[in-house]
Amino acid sequence: MVCTLLPRPFLAWHSDLKNGAERGEGSRSYSTIVHQFGSAIAASSAGWSRDTLLSYVPAFIAAGIFSGLAVLLIILFKFLDMRAGGLRPQG
User: What's the sign of the alpha-carbon dihedral 73, 79, 84, 90?
Assistant: First the structure.
């Protein structure tokens, strides 16, 4: 539940600023659907790992790899956004 609710306010706020208030609702729905789909895949993969390999370790390793990939993509997108003259990070 925490994973689904935390990103929504920021994404909706950013979408409202970028696209106008009338288009913000679509981004909220989209972010909810994507997070629910991702959590369903993670849960079923962990269940498959437990049933097949009798261990959750591969699921934890995969989660760590995907988290690291997400961090790298965020850094890359921030760098590309700054070079394109878009929004600059605070600080």
Answer: positive
DSSP structure class, residue 1:
-
pLDDT confidence of residue 1: 44
10-residue stretch averages of pLDDT, the chain, 91 residues long? 53 56 56 82 93 94 94 88 60 51
pLDDT at 63: 92
d(CA 88, CA 91): 9
CB 56 within 8 A of CB 49: yes
Helices (H), the chain: 2-5, 7-19, 24-53, 57-83
**Contacts by 7-13, CB closer than 8 A, 24 or more apart:** 7/31, 7/35, 8/32
Residue 23 DSSP symbol: G
